[in-house]
Write a structure and sequence with these properties.
Bound molecules: (3R)-3-hydroxy-3-methyl-5-(phosphonooxy)pentanoic acid
Order of helices and strands: EEEEHEHHHEEEHHHHEEHE
CATH class of the largest domain: Alpha Beta
Largest sheet: 7 strands, mixed
Oligomer: single chain
Number of strands: 11
Number of helices: 9
Helix content: 25-40%
Shape: globular
Length: about 325
C-alpha cells in the first residue's frame, strides 16, 4: 500500500467505496428477477489524487500504472477517468490517481465497481463537482460492462448508494427497511472467480435450455420476494432456509463448486441459520447467517474448513453497513 511519506505533497482529494455482498438473487438478476444486496463497509477501495505532469492511474496492489491518454479503450481505470471527464466536460487533468483496495479481487465482493466508484468520488472531490448518485452509478456501470458484457447493475448500485437495496435490472434501486440486524460471516474460498466466466456459463446453459433456466430464475425471484418480506418484518430466522433454497438453485445453475459447498456445509453444521455463495460463484466468497451467539463457532468451523479469510458484518438498524 502506498502511504504518504512526507516527501510527497498531501493528496488533492480522496474518494472511497465499500465492498458488497449479494444476499439473494445473483445470476437471476441478470435476467430481470429481483435481488437483494448490501454494502460491506469493513473492506473498502480508496483513491487519492496528487498533482502530476500527466494523468495516470496507479493501482499499487495490482502493480499497474496506466497512462490514461494512451490506455486502450477497454482499460477499466482509464475508462472511469474518461467517463468522469466527459460527464463534467473537462479535459484530462494532470493528476496521479493512486488506487488501493482491501476488497479481494474476483471474489464476488464487487472490487471492480468499488475501485471505479472510489476513482469517481476522488475526481468529483478534486473538481469540487457534485453529481447525483444515480449518475455516478451509471458511470460505474459503463465500466462494469468491460468486466462482463451483461452486468445487471447491482454492484455499481450498492457500492455507490452504500445501503442495502432491492434491485431489479433497469429500475432505480429501492432502499428498504431492515427491521432487525442481520449478522453475517463472509468466508473466502481463496479461489479467484472472474464474474465473466460464471455469467458466460449461465448464459450458455440458458441458450441450451431456456425453459429450465427460466424456471430456476423464477424460483430465485420468489425467494428474493419472501426474503424482503422477512427482512422488513424482522423475521431473521426465516432468512436461513431461504438462503439454503437459493443456494440449491445456484448449484442447479452450475455456479457452485466443491470449495464453496465445503464452506457452506461447515457453516450449517456449526449452527449457521443458512448459507449460500455470494456473487458470481465457482470460487470467491460465501455468506453464512449467524446470531451473536453462534458467530464465533461458525467462524471457527469456516477457518477449519480452509476459508482463506472470514469477515463479520452486520446489516441493519443497530449497525447500518
Ligand atoms: O461476482 P460479482 O460480485 O461481480 O457478482 C456478480 C453478480 C451476478 O449476478 C452474477 C452478475 C450481475 O451482473 O449481476
Amino acid at each position: 500500500m502506498l502511504r504518504y511519506n512526507g516527501s510527497m505533497k498531501p493528496p488533492l482529494a480522496r474518494g472511497e467505496a465499500p465492498g458488497k455482498i449479494i444476499l439473494f438473487g445473483e445470476h437471476a438478476v441478470v435476467y430481470g428477477r429481483p435481488a437483494i444486496a448490501a454494502p460491506v463497509t469493513q473492506v473498502r477501495a480508496r483513491a487519492e489524487i496528487f498533482p502530476a505532469a500527466t494523468c495516470t492511474v496507479e493501482a499499487v496492489d495490482l502493480h499497474r500504472r496506466v497512462e490514461v491518454a494512451r490506455a486502450p479503450a477497454d482499460d477499466p481505470f482509464a475508462r472511469m477517468v474518461r467517463l468522469v471527464c466527459q460527464a463534467l466536460d473537462v479535459p484530462l487533468p494532470p493528476w496521479r490517481i493512486v488506487v488501493t483496495s482491501e476488497i479481494p479481487i474476483a471474489a464476488g465482493l464487487g472490487s471492480g465497481a468499488a475501485i471505479s466508484a472510489a476513482i469517481g468520488r476522488a475526481m468529483l472531490a478534486a473538481f469540487a463537482a457534485d453529481m447525483p448518485l444515480a449518475e455516478l452509478s451509471a458511470l460505474v456501470y459503463e465500466v462494469e460492462k468491460l468486466h462482463h458484457g451483461t452486468p445487471s447493475g447491482i454492484d455499481n448500485t450498492v457500492v455507490v448508494y452504500e445501503r442495502p437495496v432491492w434491485f431489479v435490472r433497469g429500475q432505480p434501486p429501492e432502499p428498504f427497511a431492515v427491521a432487525r440486524p442481520i449478522h453475517l460471516l463472509i468466508a473466502d474460498t481463496g479461489i479467484p472467480s472472474p464474474t465473466k466466466i460464471a455469467v458466460g456459463d449461465v448464459r450458455r446453459a440458458w441458450e441450451q435450455d431456456p425453459a429450465r433456466l427460466e424456471a430456476l430464475f423464477d424460483k430465485v425471484g420468489d425467494i428474493a420476494r419472501q426474503a424482503r418480506a422477512a427482512i422488513e418484518a424482522g423475521d431473521i430466522a426465516a432468512l436461513g432456509p431461504l438462503m439454503d433454497a437459493n443456494q440449491a438453485l445456484l448449484a442447479q445453475m452450475g455456479v457452485s463448486s466443491p470449495e464453496l459447498d465445503r464452506l457452506i456445509q461447515a457453516a450449517r453444521r456449526a449452527g449457521a441459520l443458512g448459507a449460500k455463495l455470494s456473487g458470481a460463484g465457482r470460487g470467491g466468497n460465501m455468506i453464512a447467517l449467524v446470531t451473536e451467539e453462534t458467530a464465533a463457532q461458525v467462524a471457527m468451523a469456516l477457518r477449519a474448513a480452509s476459508a482463506r479469510r472470514v469477515l463479520s458484518t452486520t446489516i441493519g438498524p443497530a449497525n447500518p453497513s
